[in-house]
Each structure stands twice: as C-alpha cells, then as structure tokens.
Amino acid sequence: MKKLLIIIMFVGLNGFSQQFQGRAFYMSKVNVNMDFMKNMPPDRAAMVKSRMKTATEKNYTLEFNSNSSYFEEEERLDPNGQSGGFNWMQFVTGPAGGSIYKDLQSKTYINKKELFGKVFLVKDSLNPTKWVLTGETKQIGIYNAFKATVTREVEERAFGFGNRNTASEETNNPPLSKTREVVMSAWFTPEIPVSTGPSMYGGLPGLILEINDDRTTMLCTKVILNPKEKIKIKAPSKGKEVTLVEFEQISKDKAEEMRNMYRGRGGRGGSRRIN
Description:
Structural class: alpha+beta
C-alpha cells in the first residue's frame, strides 16, 4: 500500500505544470526550557518572559513553484524596542532562521542569516532526509495530509546567567551545548506537489503543512495557489558568503565570546558587532 501511495505521489509531481506556483503562510512556536530564569528577580523574569514570547512565536511566508521556493519571516515591530546590534535572545533560542531560498532542481540552498549585526549568506547542498511514511493521515484545512517521521540528533544549547567571579562558575562551567535524539514528524499533502516546506524542511512528495521538530512546531494556516499576480522568486545576494560548517563555527565562537563577556560583567551583557 505504501509503495502504491509513493508511486501516485511522484506521478503527480512529475506531471504537474511548470507554471504552478503558490504562497503558504505558517505560524510557529518554540518551547524553551525556562530553567535559566529560576534565580532571576521577579521583575527581570517578567521582562525576559515577554521577550521570549516575541522571539519564539512568529509568522512566516513561503513562496514556491515547481523549481524553487523562498521562505521568510513576516516583518513586525519589536514591542520591546530591541532591534539591531547584540541580541542576547539568540543565546537561548539560537540564531534567527533568516530567509531561505531553495533550488529544488540542483538541490541547493542559500540561507540569509543575521548573526549579532552581520549578514551572512550560508550556501550549501540540501541534505536528503530519510523520511519514513507511517501510513497515518489527517485533514489539515481542505487538504489530505500524510505523516512522515525521521529520527535525528539535535543540539541543546546551555546558557547560564551566573554571578560574577564565583568559584563554582570558574571550575564547573557547563558545556555550551550537548546533543540528543528526537523524532521529527511532518504532515504533507500530495495535492500540492512541490517537494518543499517551511524553513529547511522538505524532501517529501508534497508541500509540508505541519512540522513537529523537538520543541519547534510549525503549522500552515493558509495556502494561495496560482495567484493572479505572478510570484517572482529570487535568490538573496547581499551578505558574506560562507558554507554551513563555516557559519556554525562562527556562531559557536561568538556565543562563547559573548558568554564569557556576560559573566565578566556580572550578568549585565553588552552590545557588540561581529567584525
């Protein structure tokens, strides 16, 4: 039955019009471990919770056609008045996902990311995901969706808001990160036969409408197919070009630098750009 389903899906993909295009809207939420706030004063904890909500609940737009897709966060004003320069929230939630262009034919991508005030163009290949179809189905809006899963390793970030110059801090620094296994699930519909989805997710014979990836949930709230105004998908071009490995190293180095600076200032932090 699964083999028959896969054959039907790929026939739909191959036979679809090259003029096919659309726009999908997603909402996302990231559940963050709040243990780092347990020693904070109540007023400061309330401020952090407010900023956490802004940083972890977002809306996105995905534009797509048969050959490419472009995913980006919808712009909004920051109610906390924090924009540009150093953003300490990146330590907790990780660097912002940025705008992601995928070339579905060459299986490559360009991820435009901002890290502590500097723009990078992360260019690399789309790594194939070894999805496993579970046979489960459900209705998402007007579309029939099928479930696929994969087990993968995720990096767990650790960031301490310790006191200045304590002996325990000097001798028992926790690691910046550790890894663990999680089961990621995706719900996709072959009724929209494009092999893409929100963020870096894709590789299924249909548009991904829902993702549950460890602490991140992304849900498609609306789809517009073949709008009257033609969608023009262009790859981003402004920023420093790096590979994924290079960007990850830059990110880790900067995180460690800022973490040490934060501790050295007794938890007051600071604002600094990458040179």
